[in-house]
């Protein structure tokens, strides 16, 4: 099954980004501009809606998203970024559940890029205002000549298995009853495997081995690459770091299967939503030994 936010339908057209003359020629009044309310997608049925460059206004700070069927697509940078965690954005998630997969991937890429621009209007080196460059895939500082580029933060999200059970946890900000795979940012100087082992030990007090890669997913809240892994534990004793997790526990295969089947109505635990890679990771684990 195709993961949400994957399969980006746009031609990113780096050859156009790097050519100011070609980019200017595409910026005609009727060019398409993604319609957003801040960073919340606007849609009709299951499709994103668009406005035009003329309607966006002369003062709009535009980013070239790419080419769709040869037609240039742009996005307008909002006044501010989004500081809230993904699961608090109810309006956004309501829209995500209704968009088709191509538009979901297009929105995810645009959201990450536009949010980055909204957060990086000033130079991290000297503090002076920056300007979009290369069609919006870069910001330059006129004062100190520093160049800044959109960032993607790598995150490990992992299943821990012991005696055919899975270790799942919940953050205090999760909806009541929801449990998911443990996750954490990869720190400088770490491999994926080292990050998995460190995060599980820090959050749940469990040592893991045999870490293996399963799948990955772009996650535009604000701009992460979720690297999904599987690992094994030899000891199921838990020591929960309550600054990281509200709870963590082991779930049997039958309990995981019931939760995935019943979803929000599960009496055991509520699984992550299908838009998240954690849902696909749990599905993979159930099918792996079916």
TrEMBL record:
UniProt lineage: Bacteria, Pseudomonadati, Pseudomonadota, Alphaproteobacteria, Sphingomonadales
Superkingdom, natural source: Bacteria
Gene3D superfamilies (UniProt xref): 3.90.79.20, Nucleoside Triphosphate Pyrophosphohydrolase
GO terms for MF: metal ion binding; NADH pyrophosphatase activity
Cofactor(s) needed: Mg(2+); Zn(2+)
The UniProt record lists the keyword RNA-binding: no
Listed GO CC annotations: cytosol
Keyword NAD attached: yes
Organism name: Croceibacterium salegens
Enzyme Commission (EC) number: 3.6.1.22
Reaction(s) catalysed (UniProt annotation): a 5'-end NAD(+)-phospho-ribonucleoside in mRNA + H2O = a 5'-end phospho-adenosine-phospho-ribonucleoside in mRNA + beta-nicotinamide D-ribonucleotide + 2 H(+)
Family recorded in the similarity comment: Belongs to the Nudix hydrolase family. NudC subfamily.
A GO BP entry: NADP+ catabolic process
Pfam families per record: NUDIX (PF00293), NUDIX-like (PF09296), Zn_ribbon_NUD (PF09297)
Key words of the record: Hydrolase, Magnesium, Metal-binding, NAD
Official protein name in the record: NAD(+) diphosphatase
Nudix hydrolase domain boundaries: 150-277
């Amino acid at each position: 099954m195709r993961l949400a936010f994957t399969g980006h339908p746009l031609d990113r057209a780096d050859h156009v980004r790097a050519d100011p003359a070609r980019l200017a020629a595409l910026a005609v009044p009727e060019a398409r501009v993604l319609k957003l309310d801040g960073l919340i997608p606007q849609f009709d049925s299951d499709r994103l809606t668009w406005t035009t460059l003329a309607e966006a206004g002369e003062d709009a700070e535009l980013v070239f998203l790419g080419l769709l069927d040869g037609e240039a697509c742009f996005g307008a940078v909002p006044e501010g970024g989004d500081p809230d965690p993904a699961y608090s954005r109810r309006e956004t998630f309501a829209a995500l559940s209704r968009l088709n997969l191509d538009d979901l991937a297009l929105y995810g890429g645009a959201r990450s890029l536009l949010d980055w621009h909204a957060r990086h209007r000033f130079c991290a080196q000297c503090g002076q205002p920056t300007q979009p460059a290369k069609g919006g895939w870069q910001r330059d500082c006129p004062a100190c000549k520093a160049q800044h580029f959109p960032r993607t933060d790598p995150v490990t999200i992992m299943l821990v298995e012991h005696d055919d059970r899975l270790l799942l946890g919940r953050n205090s900000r999760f909806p009541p009853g929801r449990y998911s795979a443990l996750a954490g940012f990869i720190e400088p100087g770490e491999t994926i495997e080292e990050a998995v082992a460190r995060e599980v030990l820090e959050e749940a007090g469990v040592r893991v081995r045999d870490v293996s890669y399963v799948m990955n997913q772009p996650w535009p809240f604000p701009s992460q690459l979720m690297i999904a892994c599987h690992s094994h534990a030899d000891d199921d004793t838990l020591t929960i770091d309550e600054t990281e997790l509200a709870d963590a526990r082991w779930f049997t295969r039958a309990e995981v299967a019931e939760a995935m089947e019943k979803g929000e109505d599960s009496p055991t635990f509520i699984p992550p939503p299908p838009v998240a890679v954690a849902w696909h990771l749990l599905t993979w684990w159930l099918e792996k030994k079916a």
